Amino acid sequence: MTNIKEEPLHIILVFGQKKIPIHLDISSDDESKFITVEHLSNKVYKETKVEPSCQKLIYKGKALFKTDDSNSLKEPISAFGIHNGDRIMLLARKLEPADATEKPSQAKKKKDSEVTDQQLNEVDNTTLQQRLEDVQSEVEKICLRCDELVKDSQRISESLALKSCKRSFVLLHEDSMKLLERVDAIHSSNNEEARKLKKSIVGSLQVQLDICEKEIGDLSEKLLDD
């Protein structure tokens, strides 16, 4: 019987201000019939050199896999509703290199430090909610600023003003990415309400990023026409 494999898939990886075309397919010697999250993660590594353990891949506000859950890598990406031409966002986490020569006392000290960091991450619900609300407040300011810039971009025509507006969108894009990384660092796994708020914030930021990227592209075209 013929082993029918899933059709190739073309997506766009958004990494900072970069848009990287990603082509996904299944090789003839691959036992899998479906394109999985692992296929995507490996391809992302080839294109960006960001190790899978440092990747946070987000589609429509949802992370595609958890680094501590190997089973999530085996999920078909079709299960997330990803289609040709869709965009997936990559956040890169820093990974500190392990020191193989460290002394036992250093290892113990490092372990104690890790425990302390873990305890610090386990904030109470009130603090967690406040942190997310603080980020949400900053997102709302970005949304207002973005609306103002869109209106400005529609009425200006002089080259200098267009360049200034484009630069403002670039800075707004950078601020949105920083907020996205900040909210990603907030752990909300044990709080359903906080998890929903976090997902809503991520969705809002992705909308702003889309708007910024579109306006940057449109303004670049206007500047070329001048």
Automatic annotation (TrEMBL):
<dbReference type="Pfam" id="PF02179">
    <property type="entry name" value="BAG"/>
</dbReference>
<dbReference type="InterPro" id="IPR036533">
    <property type="entry name" value="BAG_dom_sf"/>
</dbReference>
<feature type="domain" description="Ubiquitin-like">
    <location>
        <begin position="36"/>
        <end position="97"/>
    </location>
</feature>
<dbReference type="GO" id="GO:0051087">
    <property type="term" value="F:protein-folding chaperone binding"/>
</dbReference>
<dbReference type="InterPro" id="IPR029071">
    <property type="entry name" value="Ubiquitin-like_domsf"/>
</dbReference>
<dbReference type="InterPro" id="IPR000626">
    <property type="entry name" value="Ubiquitin-like_dom"/>
</dbReference>
<dbReference type="Pfam" id="PF00240">
    <property type="entry name" value="ubiquitin"/>
</dbReference>
<dbReference type="InterPro" id="IPR003103">
    <property type="entry name" value="BAG_domain"/>
</dbReference>
<protein>
    <recommendedName>
        <fullName>BAG family molecular chaperone regulator 1</fullName>
    </recommendedName>
</protein>
